[in-house]
Amino acid sequence: MTDKEEKIREITADDNAVEEPAVTGSLLMPGLLAAETDPFLLNGASLAYIGDAVYELLVRNYMLSHGSHMADKLHKNTVQMVNAKAQSDMVRALMTELTETETGIFKRGRNASTMTAAKHQSVTDYRRATGLEALFGYLYLNGEHDRLLELFEHGVRLLTEQ
């Protein structure tokens, strides 16, 4: 067994021993990023790339645990949360909760130059959403899963109160 395989087995064994919050399901799979890769060194677009997937899985898991189990309703409810406007609203509500490092990661993602243009959203909302995705990608890759879930759950609460 290689050192990397041993490390993955060790990490997943530790995770199985700890009860995870209900929203996580099988989303968080630590150890998938190469040990020598520091997420802090990745550019904003790369962080947003993985963060987009992390955010979508968190929302889908949230929808399964808090709503209808009919596929059509799940999809419609998910689309309401997985769009630039909703993500922009979430990050604006969370800004006062972010640490200095998290704010820097958000700004790196927000300011990242991307080849994609906002289709049905404002450029400002699109950039803020990219910043949120970069932050979620960073927290995920850095193994800060508790903080990731804390921010997501707090953001959902703030959005549902509006």
What would you note in describing this structure?
By secondary structure, the protein is mainly α. The chain has a single domain (3-161), classed as Orthogonal Bundle (Ribonuclease iii, N-terminal Endonuclease Domain, Chain A). 66% of the residues lie in helices and 0% in strands. It has 7 helices and no strands. The chain has helices at residues 3-17, 44-66, 71-81, 84-94, 100-110, 123-141, 145-161. The chain is globular and about 40 Å long. The termini are far apart.
What is this entry, summarized?
The chain is mostly helical. The protein is built from 7 helices and no strands. It has helices spanning 3-17, 44-66, 71-81, 84-94, 100-110, 123-141, 145-161.
Biggest β-sheet: count, sense, barrel?
A: none
CATH class call: Mainly Alpha
- The percent range for helix content is 55-70%
% residues in beta strands: under 5%
Topology as a string of helices (H) and strands (E): HHHHHHH
Radius of gyration: 16 Å
Number of strands: 0
How far apart, in Å, are the first and last alpha carbons?
52 Å
CATH fold type: Ribonuclease iii, N-terminal Endonuclease Domain, Chain A
- Number of discrete helical segments: 7
The low-pLDDT segments are 11-27
Shape by Cα distribution: globular
How many separate domains? 1
Oligomer kind: single chain
- Supply the helix-strand structural class: mainly alpha
CATH hierarchy: architecture? Orthogonal Bundle
The CATH superfamily bears the name Ribonuclease III domain
